Amino acid sequence: MAISAQIVIVEDDQDDREMLTELIREVASNYEITFFSKPSEALKFLRSTTLQPFIILCDIDLPEQSGLNLKQKIDEDPFLRVKSIPFIFLSTTADKHIVAEAFAKMTIQGFFEKKNDIEGMRATIKVIYDYWKLSKHPNILFKS
User: Fold this and answer.
1) In the chain, where are the structural domains located?
2) pLDDT score of 142
3) Buried b (16+ CB within 10 A) or exposed e, 31-49
4) What is the mean pLDDT, run by run of 10 residues, along the chain of 144 residues?
5) What b/e sequence results for 4-16 when a residue is b if at least 16 CB atoms lie within 10 Å of its CB, and e otherwise?
6) CA–CA dist 79, 1 (Å, integer)
7) Which of 8, 43, 87, 134 lies 20 to 30 Å from 128, alpha-carbon distance?
């Protein structure tokens, strides 16, 4: 099957990467998955790629800087803002202060807490994918 779009994931935990790969393959098998463990690598890629990612899933606790810092840099970059890539936090760090900061200080489109079980994560990934597949936004691939 041909790749029709890309999902960017910023996640440093190898177990979470493997689980996310498996779950995304179940609901979005024609999407390429590109992982970055460091926010600086993800930012460099997003600034240089000609591809239009479908969505970015990002952890909060990452090496070098937090996911919050990454999102602030994306918001401050005129080139990346025009790309209108939906940005979703998917993290075990989901206390009310972090969630409030994410929504108050930046343009995120969602904040989900990682579930402790595979079924909970499967449901979360399916909800995120289904929502953005149906949503009309500037970077959606309008294909039948």
Assistant:
1) 1-10+26-55+72-87+106-137
2) 43
3) bebbbbbebeebbeebeee
4) 74 94 91 94 93 92 92 93 90 87 88 91 94 76 42
5) ebbbbbbbbeeeb
6) 31
7) 43
